[in-house]
Specification:
Length: 329
Amino acid sequence: MSEAPVTDGDGPAAGNPPALRIATRDSPLAMWQANHVADLLRNAHPDLTVELVEVKTTGDRNRVDPLPAMAEQSGGIGLFTKEVQRAVLDGRADLAVHSLKDLPTGPVDGLTLAAVPERASRWDALVLPADAVSNGATGSLDDLPSGATVGTGSPRRRAQLLRLRPDLLFAEARGNVGTRLEKLDAGEFHALILAEAGLDRLGLSSRISKRLESETLPAVGQGALGIECRTGDPAVALLALLNHPVARAEVDAERACLNRLGAGCHAPVGVRARIVPLDGGGGEISLTAALLSLDGETVLQANATGPDAHAVGVAVAESLLEQGGAALL
């Protein structure tokens, strides 16, 4: 994949044609994602010049404190998105590329979610230490010893894994993907839970011990990218060709559900949206969601299907709330 030039946000050099500037975090995964979007834009608009503008976020600067605690202290504002959005709003950039699972579901004045490209894998992945795999581990949760420590800061992942293995212990795993893998191989954890999409994008698919398709429901928007721009900006038209209808319908349903619950991206909520084909052609959006207690002992589930993604998401959230879900949030 080609890499877009990186600037400090002041735009292209004098004499060069105007460039479309993409604001992004500077982690390896975020840079991969921004360069991926830059390539999609160049393919859709061959005459377009694209540049990247690197931005440091609250979540990047503080790699010690647990993310749910940081989110609570900040009033639920996106730890990995707020500063990137600000770069677009103040004109340093024209677009922002986010991991959609990190993007709060509430609207931001002046910004619009203009495109959701084709979605990568939405699943969580179990990652075992390199020596465990070489010593014959089969890549199952059953490989973990009693009382094993799993590296993850996600309440959603913890709650769902505790339903399967109440004996498991958990430790915060902060830092970029490479740092987490180094900690795993150094013996800080018996296993990590990471997003399969991130490992695939970084060329680390070989580290995946097991895709957790039946064990955990994914996070809202996991595996999808969200591209924001200023409301009414000409970039909206440029981004239209990048929008993937199926991915957009899925994440619109998932995000509508989380928004109606009034929950943030660190809530113990797992979702799975999919398109259900209709006999006469076309399809409807179906959404399944689970809301869990932090200890995994209580789980509420709901499902809805219909033609309107937003309405389906709201209906699922209403069902969870009617079951007493507010007490778990």
